[in-house]
Specification:
This is LysR family transcriptional regulator. InterPro entries: LysR-type_TF_proteobact-type, LysR_HTH_N, LysR_subst-bd, WH-like_DNA-bd_sf, WH_DNA-bd_sf. Belongs to the LysR transcriptional regulatory family. The chain is α/β, with parallel strands linked by helices. It has three domains: 7-71, Arc Repressor Mutant, subunit A; 96-164 and 267-298, Periplasmic binding protein-like II (D-Maltodextrin-Binding Protein, domain 2); 166-264, D-Maltodextrin-Binding Protein, domain 2 (3-Layer(aba) Sandwich), CATH 3.40.190. The protein has ten helices and 13 strands. The longest helix has 27 residues, at 63-89. It is globular and about 70 Å long.
C-alpha cells in the first residue's frame, strides 16, 4: 500500500534526530513543541514503527529511526536541491539572481576562495553564495552542494569536471622559527625539530604516508586535524609543517625546507552536477572560480 506521508513529518523527524528532543526540533524549525510531537506521532502511526523512546536525556532514537534516517536525509537533500535549482534558474531584471552552494576544503575555503567570492558578489550582487567548508567530499549527486573544489579525480559520470592543475605540498617553517632553530639539512636533523601535523589518520593522510612513511603521527609533537590550524601554527613559528607551496608567500612569508626529500602534488578539480549546466548562475560561478583557482595554482614563484 502506498503511503501519502507529508514531507513536514520527515523534516520534523530529522530535526528530532539532530536535536534529541521535541523542544530542540521545534526551535530548529520555528514550530511549536506540540506540533513537533504531532508530526512524530503521525509519522510513527503511518509507518507502523516506534521511532523514539523517552529517556532522562531526551528522546532516544530506535533502530527503526536509525534505519530510515539516511532515506529521510536524502529527501531533505532533494528538497534543498529543488529550492536551489529553482533559485538558480530564475532571472531578475537587475541581473543574475539565485543561490549557489560551493564546497571546498578548509584551506581552499579560507585562504583562496574569499577574494573570488568577493569578486562574484561585486559583479553579481544579487547572487547568494553559500560556502561549505569540509574536508569530507560533499555529495554532488545528492546535491549537498552545487559546485565543489576537489583534490581527487571525480569518478561519477553525472558530474561535469574541469581539471585546474596540480597543487604542490611542501615542508615549510616561518622566519621566526628558523631564527631560533637552524634549518634542517637531512632527514635525521628534521626529526630533531618540532613538527606540526595531523592527529587522526584519514584516507588522504594514508595516501601521503605511502610516499613518506617516515612522517607518521608519532613524529608530530604539535597535532591538529584542522588544516587551517596547522597552517597558522606554522606561520606563528610553532614548528615545521606541510602546506601548499602557493600559501608560503602570504600573509606570513614561509621558507620551504628540504624539497628534494618532501614534495607531493594534489590534482585539483572543479566539479558540478551535469543537471546544472544550463543554470546561468551556477555556470557563471563555476567559470569565475575555475579561472581564479587556475591563477592561484599557476602563481608559484611569480
Amino acid at each position: 500500500m502506498k503511503l501519502n506521508i507529508p514531507w513536514e513529518w520527515y523534516r520534523t523527524f530529522l530535526a528530532v534526530m539532530k536535536e534529541g528532543s521535541l523542544s530542540g526540533a521545534a526551535r530548529m524549525l520555528s514550530i511549536t513543541q506540540p506540533t513537533a510531537g504531532r508530526h512524530v506521532a503521525a509519522l510513527e502511526s503511518a509507518l507502523g514503527l516506534v521511532l523514539f523512546t523517552r529517556s532522562q536525556t531526551g528522546l532516544q532514537a530506535t533502530d527503526a529511526a536509525v534505519a530510515i534516517q539516511g532515506h529521510a536525509q536524502a529527501m531533505e537533500n532533494t528538497a534543498s536541491m529543488i529550492e536551489r535549482s529553482a533559485a538558480s534558474f530564475s532571472a531578475h531584471s537587475a541581473g543574475l539572481h539565485g543561490v549557489v552552494r560551493v564546497s571546498a576544503s578548509e584551506i581552499i575555503g579560507t585562504e583562496v576562495l574569499p577574494p573570488l567570492i568577493a569578486q562574484i558578489k561585486e559583479d553579481y550582487p544579487q547572487l547568494t553564495i553559500e560556502l561549505v567548508l569540509s574536508n569530507r567530499l560533499q555529495d554532488l549527486l545528492n546535491r549537498e552542494a552545487d559546485i565543489a573544489v576537489r583534490m581527487s579525480t571525480p569518478v561519477q559520470e553525472q558530474l561535469i569536471a574541469r581539471r585546474l592543475g596540480s597543487i604542490e605540498i611542501g615542508l615549510h617553517a616561518s622566519p621566526s622559527y628558523l631564527a631560533r632553530h637552524a634549518a634542517p639539512e637531512s632527514i635525521d636533523e628534521l626529526f630533531t625539530h618540532t613538527l606540526v601535523g595531523f592527529d587522526k589518520t584519514t584516507p588522504f593522510i594514508l595516501q601521503a604516508l605511502k610516499h613518506f612513511p617516515q612522517l607518521n603521527r608519532e613524529r608530530f609533537t604539535v597535532r591538529t586535524d584542522s588544516d587551517v590550524a596547522q597552517l597558522n601554527l606554522i606561520r606563528a613559528g610553532s614548528g615545521i609543517g606541510m602546506c601548499q607551496v602557493q600559501l608560503a608567500d602570504f600573509p606570513v612569508p614561509l621558507e620551504r625546507l628540504m624539497p628534494d626529500f618532501f614534495a607531493f602534488h594534489l590534482d585539483t578539480w572543479l566539479v558540478m552536477h551535469e543537471d546544472l549546466r544550463h543554470s546561468k548562475a551556477c555556470k557563471t560561478v563555476f567559470d569565475i572560480l575555475a579561472a581564479g583557482l587556475q591563477a592561484y595554482i599557476n602563481n608559484v614563484g611569480t
